[in-house]
Amino acid sequence: RPLLHLHLQKLEAAGLVTSAFEVSEDGKALKFFTVADFSLTLSPSTLAEAAATLTVPSPKSNEQSN
Questions:
Q1: Terminal CA-to-CA distance of the chain, rounded, Å?
Q2: In whole angstroms, what is the distance from residue 44 CA to residue 35 CA?
Q3: In the chain, which residues have pLDDT < 50?
Q4: Residue 46: helix, strand or coil by DSSP?
Q5: What burial letters (b/e) apply to 50-62, b meaning 16+ CB within 10 Å?
Q6: Residue 10 near residue 17, CB atoms below 8 Å
């Protein structure tokens, strides 16, 4: 659960989800998350910008060549 909450907090900080507290019938506080409305526009230039940020993993040093 801690890892899930960490990611939900990051998504909330980025504005992709929203959260709200509610109190259950037995008095426990519950936090609910909802996906926020958003728009994503893809174009050749935005894809090129995103591709420029990718990193290629280096080959493992312990692999043997044939």
A1: 44
A2: 27
A3: none
A4: helix
A5: eeeeeeeeeeeee
A6: no
Burial 1-13 (b: 16+ CB within 10 A, else e): eeeeeeeeeebee
Residue type (1 letter), 66: N
Q: Which amino acid is at 29?
A: A
Residue pointed to by tokens 């989800």? 17
Token pair, residue 59, equals: 């080959």
Regarding pTM above 0.70, the answer is: no
Residue 29 CA to residue 21 CA, distance in Å, equals 6
Those residues whose C-beta lies under 8 Å from the C-beta of residue 19, and which sit 6 or more positions away, are 8, 12, 31, 32, 33, 34
Domain coordinates in residue numbering, the chain: 1-36
